[in-house]
Design goal:
It is a single chain. The chain has two helices and 18 strands. The protein is an alpha+beta fold. The chain is globular, with a radius of gyration of 17 Å.
């Protein structure tokens, strides 16, 4: 095991690659790098416009309807455990924003939203679905593209098993009472003219 003082990383060599353990600030990783079971996951391809506009529009819609006790933001780290830190597309938290905050703990999180892309789809549907549930995050929304429109797959935590159960799939419009009352016209989320 070697330690790089500049990055604060311990790096044990493995037969499948290099596992990196963060022991301090990491200043050399590219933006939007995630840590999953001790391995860095890099965003290798630029996001499509569809993804960007859906994330931006949904963040705005959720923030406008969130109660005062809930903050909505995008691409902020959730520290699931010692070896896993994801950066969801959208996050709703139950703690106030702090200027110097870089990550949230699972207990702070009311909702996580991932908008799938060709690069992230498999991780969003399998790995993140399992990891967010194991961390006891109660609400997980997975947004897929269907004929150019967003489709929202809502998952709710089954607390005894710490797994998600599919609750409902929304097309066209979304109405949910939890994690806070929200109603959204999904057909407006991908509209380049609303930028």
């Amino acid at each position: 095991m070697t330690h790089d003082r500049a990055t604060g990383l311990d790096a044990p060599s493995t037969s499948t690659g290099l596992a990196l353990r963060r022991s301090g600030p990491c200043r050399r990783t590219p933006a939007h790098t995630e840590l999953c079971d001790g391995y860095f996951v890099f965003r290798l391809f630029p996001q499509r416009l569809w993804h960007s506009l859906v994330v931006q529009s949904l963040t705005t819609a959720l923030a406008a309807q969130a109660p005062a006790s809930v903050e909505v933001d995008r691409q902020v780290t959730v520290r699931l455990d010692k070896w896993t830190r994801f950066e969801p597309d959208i996050i709703a938290t139950k703690v106030p924003h702090a200027r110097d905050r870089t990550a949230f703990e699972p207990a702070d999180v009311a909702l996580v939203v991932e908008v799938t892309s060709p690069e992230s789809g498999h991780r969003d549907r399998t790995v993140k679905l399992r990891k967010y549930a194991e961390a006891s995050i109660k609400h997980y929304w997975l947004i897929e593209e269907e004929d150019g429109q967003p489709v929202v797959h809502v998952h709710e935590l089954d607390t005894p098993t710490r797994t998600y159960v599919p609750a409902v799939v929304f097309r066209g419009s979304l109405e949910r009472p939890v994690p806070f009352p929200v109603g959204i016209d999904l057909t407006t989320l991908f509209n380049p003219k609303n930028r």
